[in-house]
Automatic annotation (TrEMBL):
It comes from the Bacteria. Gene3D superfamilies: Winged helix-like DNA-binding domain superfamily/Winged helix DNA-binding domain (1.10.10.10). It comes from Streptomyces solicathayae. This is Winged helix-turn-helix domain-containing protein.
Length: 321
């Protein structure tokens, strides 16, 4: 069982990563593809991924023997370049200690010994391997991952606004429990007991690792929980048939239509007219969006004006209806 222990300060420091992290999603996908006892339903996907990996990606297998990756690979950069830069600027002492932990007494390949020594050619080998693996595994489905992440982000924001943090956390991972400040994940092995001690927790959904959570717990930094989300199977190439329908399932049709209309400012009356609903319904819709941080309301005299926030624009897909 995984136990994550919160203080009051930790609850105030929970945040949800607003965009998917390419390298973190890649490493989750590769971990699923090479798992020795994979989910049977994933057999076709695993075979396709392993066949698609080019020779340039082979060094990644050297770096992660027996499924034990060094912690410096876990980064949250918004782009591949950001992720590469974060990995490359890892403290050399952490790189050396993690490589020693992962490989133990086994003599690693020469290029990994170069990483241990800080050799630039070895770092370029790692970057080429990650780039090649990303192009083969994630590039064909990355737009789908972005859509799924946006839906999950919306679900989290609305859940916190309507039900509070505790109910939302357990709703992200059915079967987990939160009581007395401890978030319990039954069935996670090996057992871990993580004390946040005021560092906070960063939440990141993954759509390529259905087997369970991945936890990065580095002393002095917020813990990062990468939790399984989505339908349980990795996304297929191509965008969902109707992203609007997926968002509508999360927000509700009226709220989604209102959010898109609020790319431009609207009074309650003009919003009601555009939605073809009553003023009371338009007002309650704007209130719900405002509670979730998706819209703002400004009062001038007896008139109120609603407009979506930057977060609302992210959820709506960036443009007007």
């Amino acid at each position: 069982m995984l136990r994550i222990r919160f203080t009051a300060e930790d609850f105030a420091r929970i945040r949800f990563v607003p965009r998917p992290a390419p390298l973190q999603e890649l490493h989750a996908a590769l971990a699923t593809a090479v798992a020795p006892r994979g989910v049977p339903l994933l057999a076709t996907w695993r075979g396709r991924v392993l066949r698609s990996l080019p020779a340039a990606a082979d060094p990644l297998a050297d770096l992660v023997p027996a499924g034990r990756p060094p912690s410096f690979l876990d980064v949250l950069g918004d782009t591949l370049s950001d992720g590469f830069e974060q990995i490359r600027t890892t403290d050399p002492g952490i790189v050396r200690s993690e490589l020693e932990r992962v490989h133990g007494a086994v003599l690693p390949p020469r290029w990994i010994r170069g990483l241990h020594a800080g050799d630039e050619a070895s770092w370029r080998t790692l970057r080429r391997a990650q780039q090649a693996a990303y192009e083969a595994v994630l590039a064909p489905v990355w737009s789908v991952v972005q859509d799924l992440h946006r839906d999950e982000f919306t679900r989290y924001a609305l859940g916190v606004a309507e039900h509070g943090v505790a109910a939302t956390l357990t709703g992200l991972a059915p079967g987990t429990r939160l009581h007395d400040g401890v978030w319990e994940w039954p069935g996670v092995a090996p057992a871990r007991d993580v004390h946040l001690d005021g560092r906070g927790l960063i939440l990141l959904p993954t759509f390529h690792h259905p087997a369970g959570p991945l936890l990065q717990d580095v002393p002095g930094r917020p813990a990062v929980l990468t939790y399984p989300a989505g339908p349980g199977l990795p996304p297929a190439a191509g965008r969902p048939a109707d992203t609007a329908e997926a968002l509508a399932a999360v927000l509700g049709r009226t709220r989604l239509d209102a959010l898109r209309l609020l790319a431009e400012p609207h009074t309650t009356t003009s919003l009601a007219r555009a939605l073809d609903v009553s003023d009371a319904t338009a007002s309650s819709t704007a209130t719900a969006l405002r509670s979730a941080g998706l819209a703002t309301t400004t009062r001038t005299g007896r008139s109120v004006t609603h407009r979506r926030t930057a977060l609302g624009t992210l959820f709506a897909g960036g443009g007007p209806p």
